[in-house]
UniProtKB/TrEMBL annotation:
GO cellular component terms listed in the entry, alphabetical order: cytosol
Name of the protein in its database record: Elongation factor P
Function as written in the Swiss-Prot or TrEMBL entry: Involved in peptide bond synthesis. Stimulates efficient translation and peptide-bond synthesis on native or reconstituted 70S ribosomes in vitro. Probably functions indirectly by altering the affinity of the ribosome for aminoacyl-tRNA, thus increasing their reactivity as acceptors for peptidyl transferase.
Main location: cytoplasm
Localization per record: Cytoplasm
Length: 185
């Protein structure tokens, strides 16, 4: 087993029986005290972030990880199906694993999935996605003097504030970070 000195950002370690993603590491040697490693990590099952201090020689279990790009196929009763475009294997993830990311999943959309020991634990979206507008009120003519916006419902059910010129059926680009309108696709 590697020592705490060997922990690097991006690795997944086992801490208290749970997988944790290492977000930051700092090696410190304060004065005449023993050296230690300060690690900022996030629990991959629950999303909780924490800081932990390890002695520099403490053994730490590093888990094997695999990151794959998958294509979203469909959602059915709280289960989300993804397909590996290289092997055509189908992988199903629970609604608990997906969380609020479901608002940005359109059929054919690609996501990065982190597998830890063969089990999918974390889903990463691209910084923006293209979604189709399914419902939007018509803009009022002459109401263009300022940056006036209106709500628009997208194909995933997400409601976004868009400019008045956006109409039903158009495809727009939406930020996955804050859910804001970025422009036409």
């Amino acid at each position: 087993m590697p020592a705490a000195n060997d922990i690097r950002k991006g690795q997944v370690i086992k801490f208290h029986g749970e997988p944790h993603l290492v977000m930051e590491t700092q090696h410190r040697t304060p004065g005449n005290l023993r050296a230690f490693v300060q690690v900022k990590m996030r629990n991959l099952r629950y999303g909780k972030a924490l800081d932990q201090r390890f002695t520099s020689t403490e053994p730490v279990e590093v888990l094997t990880t695999d990151r794959r790009t998958l294509e979203f196929s469909y959602a059915d009763r709280g289960t989300y199906a993804f397909m590996d475009p290289e092997t055509y294997d189908q992988i199903e993830l629970s609604e608990q694993t997906i969380g609020d990311l479901k608002n940005y999943l359109a059929p054919g959309g690609r996501v990065d999935v982190l597998f830890v020991d063969g089990v999918p634990l974390n889903v990463d979206l691209p910084s923006s996605v293209e979604l189709k507008v399914t419902e939007s009120a018509d803009g009022i003519k002459g109401d263009t003097a300022s940056n006036v916006q209106k709500p628009a419902t997208l194909e995933t059910g997400l409601i976004v504030q868009v400019p008045l010129f956006i109409k039903e059926g158009e495809t727009i680009k939406v930020s996955t970070i804050d859910g804001s309108y970025m422009g036409r696709a």
